[in-house]
Write a structure and sequence with these properties.
It is a single chain. Helices cover about 45% and strands about 15% of the residues. With about 190 residues, it is α+β, with helices and mostly antiparallel strands. Helix 3 crosses helix 4. The protein starts with a helix and ends in an 11-residue tail after the last helix.
Length: about 190
């Protein structure tokens, strides 16, 4: 593990524990996390080809392991796709990769980024923070697990609505208070 990979994983773990699990932004995240079934991978690739290769390698590793051993993978980008628009464009390439591998319906990729923004929202809207992470992340999920979790809920869309309400109640000041030792950044 390189010197840039260690803090990237540590920051991402802290974000998962504090925001994703701590704020219950994903009610399905706690169980695989506490069972050590979440794999944290890092790529220092800077171009689409290198990032796609790292994503492909992680997809193959996840595919090779049973869910009981590795439920999901967070691929953390330390150098690439820092620009949100470029990151968003790359997501189409990632989806095409799954389609080319005939893995649609088996895996899906969720996206998180320090500057994440939903369409038609201002950059600083607290709503965007549901998908804001310390670094760009491509989250590889098993489609069966997503479907199973969705079936267990009466209204899976309620998660998104509850997250928005939770973050609006927290506000920007509350969000910043979640990261007290991170004086250099507001964890956008």
């Amino acid at each position: 593990m390189t010197d840039t990979q260690k803090p990237a994983i540590a920051d991402t773990r802290r974000w998962v524990e504090t925001a994703v699990i701590g704020l219950n932004l994903c009610p399905f995240a706690r169980a695989p996390y506490v069972r050590s079934q979440v794999h944290f991978a890092v790529t220092e690739a800077t171009d689409d080809e290198g990032i796609a290769e790292a994503l492909l390698a992680e997809i193959h590793q996840l595919q090779a392991l049973p869910a009981e051993e590795r439920e999901t993978t967070l691929l953390i980008l330390t150098e690439g796709l820092a620009d949100f628009d470029a990151f968003n464009d790359f997501l189409g390439l990632a989806d095409n990769l799954l389609e080319h591998l005939e893995l649609n319906g088996i895996f899906q990729i969720a996206s998180f980024h320090p500057d994440y923004r939903f369409a038609d929202t201002p950059d600083d809207a607290i709503d965007n923070y549901t998908n804001r992470s310390p670094r760009p992340i491509l989250h590889i999920l098993r489609e069966d697990s997503v479907a199973e979790a969705a079936e267990a809920m009466d209204d899976p869309d309620a998660i998104y609505r509850a997250n928005i309400e939770r973050l609006r109640a927290l506000g920007h000041d509350g969000w910043r208070r979640l990261w007290p030792s991170d004086a250099s950044s507001d964890r956008r």
